[in-house]
Amino acid sequence: MGHRGQYRRLRPGRAFTLLDVLVSIAVIALLIAILSPTLSKVQETSRRVVCASNLRQAGLALQMYADDWRGLLPPSAFLRGEDGENAEMMTLRLPPDVRWRVTREGWDGLGLLYRAEYLPAAGVYYCPSHHGDHPYEAYESQWRGASGEIVGNYHFRGEDADGRRALYAIHPEAAITADGMRTQDDYNHDTGINVLRAGLHVAWMDDSNQVLRSMLALGDDDHPDDHSLDDAWDFLDRGRR
């Protein structure tokens, strides 16, 4: 047979069958299903870190504001207003029809930190976990100069439980700003809430059992009131102990 006998004819490789492809797809789908909860949890943890960073920056800005304004926190048109108005203290700039109630072109509460350039980055006022009606994109044109109301994702308290507005007079562990609590739709995280305390540190409060969330109005049709917000802030204050 000569040299030709030393070699074997190569057979062509076996092609993938439809069954092979379907099995591969099923395995990939199973792996994705197994890993998805873990990946989602990692993503939410990252968003919580960004949210906490936003609140820390707000705390530093509040300190600078207080240093320049006799120790006081920024004023709000909704503080001690009519029943239910404390729930609106996620508002950063008022709509034109109520701007007469404040100065500085309608900026209110935490929005005064933006107007006075203590915290001039619009994105810091929004939590990356927010899934309600007030994402940054809903107000992008207003941030760029258009008129109209602007709402953020963080709830400003404006004073402590005893009505003190001087930052230096508020207990360091009292909550002064937190993730949104106007309604349950504004609750940024599903299992807890980031809280900025008067000592300017941010703490995570676990709410896996939904005790705090259940205190809040279900939605706009449920008419948030001052009592639910007072209970929520009191709950956050008690959480320090």
List the defining traits of the structure above.
241 residues; alpha+beta; two-stranded antiparallel sheet; 6 strands
Task: Please specify the SSE layout and strand pairing.
Layout: H1 18-68, E1 91-93, H2 111-115, H3 140-143, E2 150-151, E3 154-156, E4 175-179, E5 192-197, E6 202-206, H4 211-215, H5 226-238
Describe the protein in words:
The chain is α+β, with helices and mostly antiparallel strands and 241 residues long. The chain has one domain. Helices cover 32% and strands 10% of the residues. It is built from 5 helices and 6 strands; from the N terminus they run H-E-H-H-E-E-E-E-E-H-H. The strands form 2 sheets. A 4-stranded antiparallel β-sheet has the order 3-4-5-6, sandwiched between helices. Strands 1-2 form a two-stranded antiparallel ribbon. A hairpin with a 4-residue loop joins strand 5 and strand 6 (202-206). The radius of gyration is 26 Å and the shape is elongated. The mean pLDDT is 84.
Count of helix runs: 5
Overall average pLDDT: 84
Class computed from helices, strands and strand pairing? alpha+beta
Helix content: 25-40%
Radius of gyration: 26 Å
**End-to-end C-alpha gap:** 93 Å
- Shape, please? elongated
Q: β content, as a range?
A: 5-15%
Structure summarized in a few sentences:
With 241 residues, the chain is of the alpha+beta class.
